[in-house]
Write a structure and sequence with these properties.
One of its GO terms (molecular function) is sulfurtransferase activity. It contains eight helices and twelve strands. The protein is α/β, with parallel strands linked by helices.
Length: 278
């Protein structure tokens, strides 16, 4: 659905002068993801690309690995008391030979727009087994290409231009070509939408690509990159300590504070064409 933005009145104060005017806000609504009719998770997201979001979430959880693993996806009618369709409930039907999600994956609480891990029973449950090894990926990229990615990501953020309130995730080639961009109020949702798009296009694993995100690099984003077979994650802000630990453990290249002509490389520096460090 296309409910990407909403209009609300706002009192604007500039240099002591007040004015009443409408403002464009990023939409945020709950999405319930079901598998085979059974509720699995609820996430707060920006409506749009909901099938990609659902598919990407299942990739991140290790449930599906290719387009053939998903038989169908649909919005559920009857989500309201009068039988209407809110377009806020997606039911995913898995292929007959695909095992349903383990009960331990079910969220005990809804997933907020800032946290994709809320309700996880334990940290061990997050460390899902990846279907592909990113450590073996032969991706290399020139630093001058990498530093250009934040601006290319920002230039493609159409809804952010209107609202100033969305995260973005973009998938790039080693030459800096933008393959896919998604925006959402949740950084983890934006990544899931990119990964879900790749799943439905049967592009997994995403070897030789760079995932560029507009915010910080958390553990969950590193996990999602690894689960999709993406060998490099770059962020304009800081990574967490656990994100770095998982990147090192997985063989993923993790770059933070990618701003202007500078960056911090926390793991996998061998994938960048860098001068020798004194």
């Amino acid at each position: 659905m296309g409910r990407l933005t909403a209009r609300q009145p706002v009192l604007r104060i500039r240099d002591g002068v007040c004015s009443q005017r409408p403002d464009t806000l990023a939409a945020e609504e709950p999405l319930e993801i079901r598998v085979g009719g059974r509720p699995l998770s609820v996430t707060m997201r920006t409506p749009g690309n909901d099938f990609d979001l659902s598919a990407g979430f299942l990739v991140s959880e290790g449930v599906v690995h290719s387009a053939g693993d998903v038989a169908a996806m649909r919005y559920c009618a009857g989500a309201t008391a009068d039988g209407g369709n809110t377009y806020n409930v997606v039911d995913v039907a898995l292929a007959p030979d695909v095992s349903p999600p383990d009960a331990s994956l079910e969220r005990n609480f809804y997933t907020t727009s800032s946290c994709g891990l809320c309700g996880k029973a334990s940290l061990d449950a997050v460390r899902t087994t990846a279907a592909w090894s990113v450590a073996e990926d032969r991706l290399t990229i020139a630093p001058e290409t990498l530093v250009a990615l934040p601006e290319r990501l920002r230039a493609a953020q159409k809804v952010f231009d209107k609202t100033g309130g969305l995260h973005a995730a973009g998938l790039f080639t080693a030459s800096g070509e933008l393959l896919c961009l998604r925006e959402d109020v949740g950084r983890h949702n934006a990544v899931d939408k990119v990964v879900g798009h790749a799943l439905t296009a049967n592009l997994l694993p995403l070897r030789g690509t760079i995932l560029m995100v507009s915010g910080r690099a958390s553990f969950e984003l590193v996990q999602k990159a690894v689960m999709a077979g993406i060998p490099m994650l770059a962020a304009v802000s800081a990574p967490s300590s656990l994100a770095v630990d998982l990147a090192v453990e997985s063989g993923l290249t993790l770059v933070g504070f990618l701003r202007g002509n500078s960056m911090n490389v926390y793991s996998g520096a061998e994938r960048l064409h860098l001068p020798l460090v004194n």
